[in-house]
Write a structure and sequence with these properties.
The protein has 337 residues and is mainly α. It has 2 domains: 2-143 and 294-298 and 312-335, no CATH class; 148-288, no CATH class. Helix content is 68%, strand content 3%. Helix 11 runs antiparallel to helix 12 (218-248). The radius of gyration is 25 Å and the shape is elongated. The termini are far apart. Residues 1-15, 256-261 and 296-309 have low confidence and may be disordered.
Length: 337
């Protein structure tokens, strides 16, 4: 009897190993197919301070998935052809027909294909469990300018108005006309890059996962996210005021003050500090556990579902997805250039 049990354990271990080997292969061909997209994203993140936070978005998403590992182990794999195949086809079509090479379309294709793969290989239960880390990946897609462009002028005016009030409060003569701040020795313009709108996306990209992971109630989450955004807006106005003050007294560089401490990135940094302080304050007295913490906590009443490679169905699914992604990768990399 002991020998039979040991043989079953070894056989089951080999089955699990096969599953993870195929999963690693599938991940590799997925990276191969979307290599150009990843390279494009990295270039945008590296060259644009607006989207520089994009480097940590996939890491945060993976961390949230890792927090739910115990919950995911208890879910039963139930591949869905009906839902998975159409979603994957939709993601691939987005990638192929993107003749103008728009980064936003590439990003939507990437996320859509990930959703389709989860549905096809794992099932709708896994997608339901992973909806937040998947949706969070939208922050790494550089398309937010579509929404922030319309906010630039209102925020320029607000920063100029509040900054002018701050300058006047210390007795410096100043006059504001729209987005222009007129000092006796210089006229400053609150340009689009100084509106503070772009920093809101970076602050929100950090605030939302912090609220999800560490806070339980929706009210406290909303307070944290909104509070971080409000503080970043106010800090940006304060930055505009400091630029005006330094310009008036001819201290350092006119546009950004001494040592560039008044660049827009400083607004994001202050916003991040405010967020961590806010999490510490709001988490006190927040009874219960956050969704991520509850997902990570084991539930003895539930049986752990071991991932296996039994039967031919899941093997065929892995094989099908691997072939499709290889063909798409070859087409994108060698025939579409």
């Amino acid at each position: 009897m002991t020998t039979i049990i040991k043989e079953n354990i070894i056989k089951h271990s080999q089955i699990d190993t096969k599953y993870w080997v195929w999963l690693a292969i599938l991940f590799g061909v997925f990276v191969f197919s979307y290599a150009n997209v990843f390279v494009t994203f990295i270039k945008v993140w590296w060259n644009s301070y607006i989207y520089s936070f994009g480097f940590i978005v996939p890491l945060i998403s993976l961390y949230i998935v890792w927090l739910q590992k115990d919950r995911l182990k208890r879910l039963k794999i139930s591949p869905s052809y009906i839902l998975g195949i159409p979603v994957i086809i939709g993601g691939i079509i987005l990638l192929i027909i993107n003749t103008q090479g728009r980064v936003s379309v590439q990003g939507f294709s990437l996320i859509t294909t990930i959703i389709g793969m989860i549905l096809l290989l794992l099932g709708s239960q896994f997608l339901k469990a992973l909806w937040f880390p998947i949706a969070y990946l939208l922050f790494m897609v550089p398309f937010w300018g579509i929404f922030t462009e319309r906010l630039n002028l209102p925020f320029q005016n607000f920063s100029a108005a509040l900054g002018t009030k701050m300058i006047q409060a210390i007795g410096i003569p100043v006059y504001r006309q729209s987005i222009y701040i007129e000092l006796p020795n210089i006229t400053l313009e609150v340009a689009k890059v100084c509106s503070g709108v772009n920093n809101l996306i970076a602050v929100a990209a950090i605030a939302i996962p912090l609220a999800y992971i560490f806070l339980r109630s929706w009210q406290r989450r909303v307070i944290l996210v909104c509070g971080g955004i409000i503080i970043s807006v106010l800090v940006n106005s304060f930055r505009v005021a400091l630029i005006g003050i330094f310009a008036y007294f001819n201290i350092g560089e006119v546009l950004h003050g001494p040592y560039h401490v008044l660049q827009a990135m400083s607004v994001s940094m202050v916003g991040f500090i405010a967020l961590f302080i806010g999490v510490w304050v709001l988490s006190r007295g927040d009874s219960g556990k956050s969704p991520a913490a509850r997902a990570a906590a084991p539930e003895p009443s539930l049986q752990s579902y071991q991932v296996s490679f039994k039967g031919n169905r899941i093997k065929h699914l892995f094989f099908l997805m691997t072939i499709i992604l290889i063909l798409i990768g070859i087409y994108i990399r060698f025939y579409r250039q």
